[in-house]
Amino acid sequence: MKNNWNSLKKKLMPENAEVRRWSLVNRLVKELNIFGYDEYTELHGLTVYLSGQEAGMLRGLVEPPVFKEDLLKKFREKKIKVTDPFLWEVKMESPPEGAKEIEPGVWLMPCYSSDAEPESEPPATGDSDEKSVEPLPVTTGHDVTPSEPLRAKARVKELVEGTLMKRSYSLDADRQRKFNIGRGEKSGTIDVNHIVVDQACKSISRQHALIDFDPREGFVLQAREGGNPHNNNDTLLHRDDGDIRLTNSRERQPLRDGDIIILGPVGARRGNVALLFEFDKEEERQLQRQGMVEEDPFFI
Fold this sequence. Notes:
Strand order of the largest sheet: 6-5-15-14-11-12
Helix content: 10-25%
Low-confidence stretches: 11-15, 114-147
Shape: globular
Distance between the termini: 26 Å
Radius of gyration: 21 Å
Structural class: alpha+beta
Strand content: 25-35%
Oligomer: single chain
Mean pLDDT: 76
Largest sheet: 6 strands, antiparallel
Number of helices: 5
């Protein structure tokens, strides 16, 4: 059964506002294509409508200036055009007709400016003066397909400051194929961890998980011995379309851009570690320039 991010937050990290804020920012950006965003569109503002039992808690996340700052930063990364000033409104009321529910209790309504039309666009003809815009397809990440080149470079970064020994770790499959994840630099008498969780995170095993590069699948996530449920630990993959729990060390799950890797005991209020997996942006731009992949304005 699908778990939305609200239920995941309750199970894993109910006190972690930073992870929750990051998830909402990215969901807002991804959902813009439902409203027909394209390269000629300029976004004038967004209005978020909150309702339901968690409306008060959600308001505390999206109303402070830091949420708008994170949202504008993500727009710049995605090269989404916005006006200056940019209107950001949070309303505790029922949404109007045309608003889109992006998750339970959160409704989105964008406002577009008509000032950003393409210079070379020919004048409209016919009885209608409106220019119809074909909505972009909804994207939930980059699935590996035979017709699409594998991404050989990626990175993993912490979503909560201080949980990793470094803010982020680069993954380069041309140099190394296996990346151990665990608490401390050593995962045993011989093995070392390449993505090092801080020693203070006692619930994380020294041999918790690994990211492997498969020539057919790309980067894949596996649970190691210490990250299995029979050791009271979990390795969980959170996505917008559902959660995936790795139940044994033989199970392999290909990683998508924007996946959140959760390490630690499910149900614990503290001690879990949340990591963001994303493809290397420079490699993605290079593939786009070579025409090997389509340019995607919603690539995170």
